[in-house]
Specification:
Blueprint: E1 3-4, H1 10-19, H2 24-36, H3 50-59, E2 60-61, E3 65-72, E4 78-84, E5 89-96, E6 101-104, E7 108-110, H4 119-122, E8 125-128, H5 131-145, E9 151-154, H6 164-174, E10 187-191, H7 195-201, E11 209-213, H8 219-225, H9 234-248, E12 252-258, H10 266-276, E13 281-287, H11 301-313, E14 317-320, H12 337-340
Parallel strand pairs: 1-2, 6-9, 9-10, 10-11, 11-12, 12-13, 13-14
Antiparallel strand pairs: 3-4, 4-5, 5-6, 7-8
Helix pairs in contact: 1-2, 5-6, 7-9, 10-11
The protein binds S-adenosyl-L-homocysteine (SAH) and iron/sulfur cluster.
Length: 341
């Protein structure tokens, strides 16, 4: 497969042009086109010698993604289906809020983690996305939406910390001051709890936000919902998060998807608060989005609010994710499945 130019840092582009027999300055121009201007088609790169483009195109591409179609859903959420070079497909979601927009990026085709309630997990793992394929999602959506997203969340298909190197490189590219220059604090990585990845991330010197998907206040229940619990246990995960906060001075946000009759009881709200109270963090409650592969449902509004109140009363700060973008198959983390069928 050809290497996406969107995944290369300025130095790498300079070396690439030098290796093709051109001046390193051409690499700087290429960086401007790919990152600052966000081109996603060869013909839009205008001031490079045709011969250089030809040489590069043998091994590299500026078109790693093809837009297949857009489907919109209520609340202004927009969702795009894109095709990769090898014919696989991914989806990227754009979620508007009052004055900003958030793009939800995919990091893998499928996912190995197999969480019970997640469509990505149920369709199995196909492959990792390269840093270039991750950054190109941003560029392509910005071009189609006619507007640059303000925030980036790694909450689409896949487990970001299972594709650590390419995900980290994509963050450095999005964050690059001479490129898109998206502030690290506007970037959120979400993980199902890969402890070595969390520990490594703490040492990167990045100010990115970390979300950890918890979904259960104890090991027994978590194991039923998330097979990863068998490998990385809840107590160790909480320890890793505590260390992360200590090292980076950044709060962790714990994602908790509420499923009626499974993890939404007042007793579980108290158990969750007891687990998290000892250290500074936030909880984000997400009502379950229905997926065909999982029989569960979101609790009624009153139960969600009761759960929220209890956790709050026990001294842990809680937010409730608005239902925007949660309808149909628009929710992050449960993409592609419909297309695959
Ligand atoms: N793999 C990462 C990031 C992608 S999923 C992770 O699991 O954290 C982003 C979030 O959406 C996770 O918190 C995930 O648990 C949640 N999610 C997945 N399927 C969902 C569903 N059907 N309803 C609500 N939230 C869901
Ligand atoms: Fe993978 Fe996240 Fe879905 Fe679990 S919730 S299967 S980790 S994408």
């Amino acid at each position: 497969m050809k290497i996406a130019l969107q995944g290369l840092l300025p130095d790498e582009l300079r070396e690439l042009c030098a290796a093709a027999g051109e001046s390193a300055f051409r690499g700087q121009q290429l960086w401007q086109w790919v990152q600052a201007k966000g081109v996603t088609r060869w013909e839009d790169i205008r001031n490079l010698p045709g011969k250089l483009k030809e040489t590069l195109a043998r091994t590299h591409t500026v078109e790693p993604l093809k837009m297949l179609k857009e489907s919109s859903s209520s609340g202004g959420t927009r969702k795009w289906l894109m095709e990769l070079d090898d014919g696989e497909t991914i989806e990227t979601v754009l979620i508007p809020a009052r004055t900003w927009t958030t793009i939800c990026l995919s990091t893998q085709v499928g996912c190995k983690m197999g969480c019970a309630f997640c469509a990505s997990g149920q369709s199995g793992f196909v492959r990792h996305l390269s840093a270039g394929e991750i950054v190109a999602q941003f560029q392509l959506v910005a071009a189609f939406a006619g507007r640059r997203p303000d925030n980036v969340v790694y909450m689409g298909m896949g487990e970001p910390l299972d594709n650590y190197d390419d995900v980290l490189k994509s963050i450095r590219l999005l964050n690059h001051p001479e490129g898109l220059n998206i502030g690290a604090r506007r970037i959120t990585i979400s993980t199902s709890g890969i402890i070595p990845g969390i520990r490594k991330l703490a040492t990167e010197g990045l100010q990115v936000e970390l979300s950890v998907s918890l979904h259960a206040p104890n090991r027994e229940l978590r194991r039923q919902l998330m097979p990863i619990e068998n490998k990385y246990s809840l107590p160790d995960l909480i320890d890793a998060c505590r260390d992360y906060t200590r090292q980076t001075k950044r709060f962790v946000t714990f994602e908790y998807t509420l499923i009626q009759g499974v993890n939404d009881s007042p007793a579980m709200a108290r158990e969750l608060a007891r687990l998290l109270r000892p250290f500074p963090c936030r909880v984000n409650l997400i009502p379950l989005s229905p997926v065909e592969e999982f029989a569960g449902e979101a609790p009624p509004r009153a139960a969600i609010e009761a759960f929220q109140r209890i956790v709050e009363q026990h001294g842990v700060s809680v937010t409730l994710r608005a239902s925007k973008g949660q309808d149909a198959d628009a929710a992050c983390g449960q993409l592609r499945r419909r297309q695959a069928r």
